[in-house]
Design brief:
heterodimer, A: 1189 residues, alpha+beta, B: 265 residues, 6 helices, extended, RRP7 (chain B), Ribosomal RNA-processing protein 7 C-terminal domain-containing protein (chain B), Rrp7A_RRM (chain B), nucleic acid binding (chain B)
């Protein structure tokens, strides 16, 4: 498609030139092609301007008015200047070849940032000349045995080859290389700063190589020795090389590579990898065809008997072939790519994209070399052409990655370079020998030989995601593609850590049957085969539960010159991304009972598999993983159970070597006390059951015969949004320490206590429209009370417990407590009316009206939207509650508004880029922390597009307002579509102001910039903790939830006795009834709500009341921090301004004292305030500690 | 209490106040006679003491007791900010209760006769009053009592009735006043609207309809780019639009550059 567009453009361009020759022709042309039209029109600038002026004059002379045009404000007249050719072509190009103007500019900036500077390029070239000069002066050595290493020790270089490889035959001789040149990314100038290694190819002279060196590991050993010799010689040249180390080529342990750091400034930025290669056309290319056997079993194992058919050695052939074909590839790349061309820029983009996903290095990487050759291949098959913009090249390559399937038959990189091997190659031999295939120009080498199937699937997955970002309008695709780093911990919904030792790994391998051949092929490194096997088993076990099983990569190893290579790590971590619709299924359904696949299924699942009858009457093999009424929290552990089982069953992997990251953070959502009376787990069911009670209550209320019909029942509670951290469950009334009246509990006058906290749900009743409502606010309140009384009477007749409060009714319904109030929408409007001096009234924003609007209008709609979010993403509830729990545990509740947290989490679900939407609370929590820690609130607006309800204009307008009015807007700018009001027309600026007036009203007063900074620090610290410890088996995740009190000026400790929410604390006190001590088959004692008609004490939290009182009284002097979920501490921080003496002002004396003799000043009366902290919380406050200064 | 505390500040007497005998910290109460030009029957100037910096735990009862030392106290009013007017009142405490004054506040102590005020103003230096009596008035007890009082009794019914009756009376009276139009000596009747004009609350659906209708009509009437110059102008406008966007984007890019948005590492 792009080709076509491009050609059109070209044709247009050539036409322009023709038509330019005959001026005036443009006027007659009536054409739909805007591009050509435009060009023609402005082809002759001078003439154009004259004409325009002329025609205007003529029109004015005739008395005509210039028609109303979309003329835009033009400050310095620049916008209407006649354009230059250059400008026009840039504008047109942007329109045609790029995503958007901004995207293009961002891309250019980025490419400029990552490209190598010319100065450095010259420096490196100079360095190479010196380096190559030095190498050519090295003397030839005597011939020695290839296996002998004593000379290496003399030179202080340790053999980087793996231990345990049998001795290699042959002789080694060093002679200066015939050629030293740059290859790969530097030579093609596709190098980016994200990968600092530059490749240098060193061609060995003829005398160093033997004709039979392809055999039995000789070449691989020889290249190591050659590098080692160079390394040894370089040790004495500190002016050339600052330091040296060993690393591995693409993570393949049989190909250790010398990495040198050039001395001087250049070495701080770039490293050089040395690749010795055999002389050109020395080996026959067909020798390295995948099906060829170049290793002898007898050589490797010593004891093996001679077999007729030697097994193919695809990996070994690749490892040698890479060096053999290196000059050829390098030539091909350098002839096809010219520096600075769009192709090169496109390749750079791809490399950045891969690097941000950590796919460009280490074992199983998608190397830059493969990218470059893939682009050349696409160029060859005309999927892309050299005129495309880098963006288009990037997009086309992604498309080709998602379209093709390299695991079946990869693209063959055919070029015009003739090769004798091409004819003999049979492409069919590649797939069974390699999991992923991408052949090079000769048809011999599989460029993707080191890629496993899992790696390749990951690349495809990322390519698909990238394409979806590019086509979606509401993600900032540029940033998510190129700037944001993809962290593996935040990438995977759950993580499977498999601890394997070499012995266990070999056992796994031995189950595959051909482990001897595999070990030989990898020259003693069979890890990739083991991991592929593990991934295969896990994938088969999870079936359609998973979207992706991606191995987590560790950085490529590098080790000092004089040390032995590090031991091979056989352990592997797998990141799992789930398919949310199937992942938590209780049943794994197998084939029908009468099909032949049954045996395979039974063999795979072992004793877990059983024959089951399904509802449609069919019989299937199936595996059942849990009880039908298992809680969601438990269901999230089913994949773990499956993985443990199949790994044990199929690969005999012990339970203790499997570790899962899934339940650690979610444990914070457990509530021990509720567990006793409800199937609580992580609380999703409790929320749902609360909402069901709400539904039945609203049915009951609607059925009441009131003077006005109820038109709607809605709720603004966080329970309905599924975001109440600990939704209360129906519990038996414990009236000890309280006074029990007939059907309610109150406090005895001499002081009692309430041990349990009951949270009521706010419910609002909207009545049908009536003209009879009064116009007076207190009269409206009276009418509302009358309605409340009416409902109260009716419900009491039906035998329900109802209490009347000043603004609401408290109803006990199915064991839950509800606060029901009647709402009257016109009240908002009445609150907005302000009397003017001339006796009229006018509409104006008032604080009362805004508050009322927020609670009765915006909040219920917003709550419904979030509830629908939960319907779309089943993990949303857990995620949002976990995040809120953390915010509160760090004493930030109240400072970071709850709604803001909910919105940020919703944003993570709506705009998950660069990831898939989170499918577990755990991963959403990590991403939330990342968001807090890495967001620049000053420059980032958060437009949370709930239900896609923003119009395009809204998005533009909000972004524009954000940039132009940043200083007056809240420090955290979060907008939902529900914050925008409906207006008459979008043209009137006053109306427009009205629409966007309430933007980000949730964060208007809080958080303060200081709080944002603090949360950034806290989240950053938590993330650091996770990245170091999350994969460890024994780690106390709660560390992240335990606040530090060091930063508070005053710490107020609260006594346990009156705290009603201690059960919600991070470390609950009463550990006597640990849920883990539960017996099997233990069930919670559900309370029958029908029996209980006693209203419990609701919404009574002394700690909350205390903090509220403190904030009201001393908010002008200090900030107060408290964890509402069972926190036993209140932290106090004095405001810096309060600590300095101030001018005496009688009206602002609040809490200050007057000092001074002649000149009076006021200072904060700290002693008195500290005493007040105690006096205001009599019965609750324990110790008060001052920070030692 | 520190000895360097002044006793007289801008005409205010400075007096210490602590919560109970055990508290170490002492707040300063500053008081002086209430002097304003406006006369109020609630706050007669000769008998009223104006007190500032009143700590949050002080209640009417506490102040009644503390100031009865100087003379019989008639009323105690608390305000958040100084105010010469009468204290807010409500006839219907259950339906529209008075807002509670929280935090630090100012107080007006009204004595029965002026001698109380004089006695208060001649308070010796470094006096420290003690707020609490036997029963604590803060903390758990206060919150529990507030909780128990939250539930309304059936008296609210009567209040609702009274309030609505009063409201009905008022509206009735207004209507009658509107209807009672008297002719002047020439026999003319002046008709005025008695109702306050209130801006109409527009309905959303209604709005949209009229809007789109108007727009449709307009569109129908308009001829797009009838003259050649119009075409040219439209083209120029288009270009200007593009340039404007280009400039805006450029601005954004420099902003992003400043916040290091192009460093992928």
């Amino acid at each position: 498609m792009h080709d076509v567009e491009q050609n059109d453009g070209d044709d247009g361009g050539s036409e322009d030139i023709d038509s330019d020759n005959k001026p005036g022709s443009s006027e007659e042309e009536v054409s739909g092609e805007e591009e050509t039209d435009e060009e023609d029109g402005f082809g002759d600038q001078g003439q154009e301007v004259q004409e325009q002026a002329g025609s205007k004059r003529a029109l004015n002379d005739q008395g005509g008015k210039p028609s109303k045009s979309a003329r835009i404000e033009d400050k310095d007249g620049k916008l209407y200047q006649p354009p230059t050719m250059e400008e026009l072509s840039v504008l047109r190009e942007t329109q045609m070849l790029y995503h958007s103007n901004l995207f293009r500019m961002q891309m250019e900036e980025l490419l400029g940032e990552v490209s190598m500077k010319d100065k450095q390029r010259h420096q490196l070239q100079d360095w190479l000349t010196r380096f190559s000069g030095f190498l050519s002066t090295l003397p030839n050595t005597k011939e020695c045995l290839l296996q002998s290493t004593h000379w290496m020790q003399e030179k202080g270089v340790c053999d980087p080859a793996l231990a345990g490889i049998p001795d290699v035959q042959g002789r080694f001789i060093f002679a200066p290389p015939t050629m030293v040149e740059f290859v790969g990314s530097f030579a093609a100038s596709t190098v980016t700063k994200l990968n600092k290694a530059i490749d240098v190819m060193v061609t060995m002279p003829q005398e160093c190589v033997h004709k039979l060196d392809w055999r039995d590991g000789r070449w691989l050993s020889k290249r190591i020795k050659y590098s080692a010799w160079i390394a040894g010689s370089l040790r004495e040249k500190p002016d050339l090389v600052a330091s040296q180390c060993w690393t591995t080529h693409l993570g393949v342990s049989s190909r250790p590579t010398l990495q040198v750091t050039p001395s001087g400034d250049i070495g701080k930025k770039w490293k050089v990898n040395i690749f010795p290669v055999p002389p050109a056309e020395f080996f026959k290319p067909s020798r390295f065809l995948p099906e060829k056997c170049n290793l002898n079993l007898k050589w490797f194992y010593g004891d093996a008997e001679e077999v007729e058919m030697q097994p193919p050695t695809p990996l070994y052939n690749w490892a040698c072939g890479v060096d053999v074909f290196m000059p050829q590839h390098s030539r091909l790349i350098q002839t096809s790519l010219s520096p600075g061309s769009n192709l090169v820029q496109g390749i750079k983009l791809l490399k950045i994209w891969l690097a941000q996903r950590r796919l460009d290095r280490g074992i199983g990487c998608f190397s830059g070399h493969v990218v470059t050759l893939l682009v050349l291949h696409l160029l060859h098959v005309k999927k892309i052409n050299a005129h495309m913009s880098p963006y288009q090249i990037f997009r086309s390559v992604l498309l080709s990655l998602t379209d093709g399937d390299w695991s079946v038959s990869g693209p063959k990189h055919a070029t015009s370079i003739p090769s004798e091997a091409t004819a003999t190659t049979n492409p069919q031999v590649f797939p069974p020998l390699y999991p992923v295939v991408f052949t090079d120009s000769s048809g011999v080498l599989n460029l993707a030989a080191t890629l496993t199937l899992a790696d390749y699937k990951r690349v495809r997955h990322e390519a698909e995601l990238a394409l979806s970002f590019l086509s979606s309008s509401d993600t900032d695709s540029f940033e998510s593609l190129f700037i944001k780093k993809v962290e593996m911990l935040q990438f995977s919904d759950q993580i499977l850590c498999l601890q394997l030792k070499q012995k266990e790994g070999l056992e796994v391998l031995s189950r595959t049957g051909n482990h001897r051949e595999v070990m030989m092929d990898g020259l003693g490194d069979g890890r990739v085969a083991v991991w592929s096997e593990v991934v295969r088993v896990v994938e088969e076990g999870l079936g359609d539960r998973k979207l992706l099983v991606a191995p987590l990569r560790s950085d490529p190893e590098s080790w000092p010159l004089d040390q032995v290579p590090p031991k091979l790590q056989w352990s592997i971590n797998l990141g799992l991304i789930f398919n949310p619709h199937a992942a938590w299924a209780l049943l794994t359904k197998g084939p029908a009972a009468d099909t032949p696949e049954v045996a395979v299924f039974r063999q795979f699942w072992g004793e877990k598999s059983s024959l089951r009858r399904f509802q449609d009457g069919s019989f299937h093999e199936a595996v059942l993983w849990g009880d039908p009424n298992e809680s969601v929290g438990k269901r999230r552990l089913i994949p773990e159970e499956i993985c443990r089982w199949v790994l044990g069953q199929q690969l005999d992997i012990k339970k203790k070597s499997v570790h899962f990251v899934n339940r650690q953070t979610e444990a914070l959502l457990h509530h021990q006390a509720y567990e006793k009376e409800f199937l609580y787990a992580t609380g999703e069911e409790a929320t749902v059951s609360f909402i069901q009670a709400y539904d039945s209550l609203s049915r009951k209320l609607r059925s009441l015969d009131l003077p006005l019909k109820i038109s709607a029942v809605q709720s603004s509670s966080d329970v309905i949004r599924h975001s109440r951290v600990f939704p209360t469950v129906p519990r038996a009334i414990d009236a000890t320490d309280c006074r029990l009246l007939t059907n309610r509990v109150i406090f005895p006058p001499d002081g009692g206590r309430c041990k349990t906290f009951t949270y009521p749900m706010e419910v609002m009743l909207l009545l049908e429209i009536s003209g009879k409502w009064p116009d007076n606010l207190s009269a409206i309140q009276a009418i509302k009370t009358e309605f409340h009384l009416k409902i109260l009477e009716m419900l009491r007749i039906d035998g329900f417990t109802v209490e009347l409060f000043q603004t609401y009714l408290r109803i006990l319904w199915e064991g839950y407590v509800f606060h029901v109030r009647v709402c009257y929408m016109r009240e908002i409007y009445l609150c907005r009316l302000v009397d003017t001096p001339d006796g009229d009234c006018k509409e104006q924003e008032t604080a009362a009206a805004t508050r009322l609007e927020r609670h009765t209008d915006i909040l219920p709609r917003f709550s419904t939207a979030l509830a629908s979010m939960q319907a779309d993403h089943s993990s949303f509830s857990g995620a949002v509650r976990l995040c809120k729990r953390w915010v509160s545990s760090q004493l930030l509740c109240g400072h970071l508004p709850q709604v803001a947290v909910e919105l940020l989490v919703a944003y993570l679900y709506l705009v998950p880029a660069p990831y898939t939407p989170p499918h577990t609370p755990h991963v959403a929590f990590l991403r939330f922390l990342h968001l807090l820690a890495h967001t620049d609130w000053k420059t980032t607006p958060f437009l949370v597009n709930l239900n896609d309800a923003f119009t395009v204009e809204d998005l533009v307008e909000l972004n524009q307002r954000f940039t132009s009015q940043r200083s007056t807007l809240p420090s955290m700018f979060v907008v939902t579509p529900y914050d925008l009001r409906n207006i008459k027309s979008t043209e009137d600026p006053a109306d427009k102001d009205k629409r966007y007036k309430l933007a980000s009203h949730w964060t208007r007063t809080a958080p303060l910039p200081q709080i944002l900074y603090r949360s950034k620090q806290l989240a950053g610290a938590a993330l650091d903790f996770f990245s170091f410890n999350l994969l460890k088996k024994t780690v106390d995740i709660k560390t992240v939830f335990r606040p530090s009190y060091d930063d508070y000026d005053v710490v107020i400790h609260l006594e346990d006795y009156h705290l009603s929410r201690l059960d919600e604390a991070v470390d609950p006190k009463n550990t006597t009834t640990k849920p883990s001590a539960k017996k099997k088959g233990w069930k919670p004692q559900m309370v029958n709500p029908k029996e209980n008609q006693t209203m419990p004490i609701a919404m009574f939290d002394p700690a909350f009341l205390y903090v509220k009182e403190l904030r009201e009284s001393y908010g002008h002097l200090a900030l107060f921090f408290h964890d509402e979920h069972g926190g036993q501490v209140v932290g106090v921080v004095w405001k810096p301004a309060a600590l300095t003496p101030q001018e005496l002002k009688i009206n602002t004396l609040e809490g200050h004292k007057v000092v001074g003799v002649k000149e009076f000043k006021q200072v904060m009366n700290i002693d008195a305030i500290l005493s007040d902290f105690k006096s205001l919380g009599i019965g609750l406050v324990g110790q008060i500690k001052l920070k030692k200064t | 209490m520190c000895t360097d505390t002044p006793h007289n500040v801008h005409g205010f007497k400075v007096v210490g106040l602590k919560y109970d005998n055990e508290s170490k910290g002492v707040h300063q109460l500053l008081w002086k006679p209430h002097r304003v030009k406006m006369y109020s029957e609630y706050k007669p100037a000769e008998c009223t003491l104006f007190v500032v910096n009143v700590p949050p735990y002080c209640t009417t009862e506490v102040f009644q007791r503390l100031f009865s030392v100087y003379g019989k106290v008639k009323w105690v009013f608390f305000h958040k900010k100084p105010s010469s007017g009468p204290p807010p009142t409500t006839k219907y405490p259950l339906i529209s209760p008075l807002p509670v004054v929280t935090g630090f506040k100012v107080a007006y102590v009204v004595f029965i006769d002026p001698s109380g005020l004089k006695a208060a103003m001649s308070v010796p230096a470094h006096t420290v009053l003690v707020a609490s009596s036997s029963s604590p008035l803060t903390g758990i007890n206060k919150w529990q009592a507030e909780y128990n009082d939250g539930m309304l009794e059936s008296t609210v019914r009567k209040e609702v009735k009274d309030l609505m009756e009063e409201y009905d009376r008022k509206t009735q009276a207004e209507k009658e006043a509107a209807g009672k139009l008297e002719a002047d000596e020439d026999g003319w009747v002046t008709v005025t609207s008695t109702k306050k004009k209130k801006p109409r609350l527009a309905k959303v659906g209604e709005l949209k309809n009229t809007k789109s209708k108007k727009r449709k009509n307009k569109k129908k009437q308009e001829l797009v780019n009838f003259y050649a110059f119009q075409t040219r102008q439209a083209r120029m406008d288009n270009l200007a639009q593009l340039r404007k966007k280009f400039d805006e984007d450029k601005k954004r890019i420099t902003q992003m550059k400043a916040s290091r948005k192009f460093r992928p590492y």
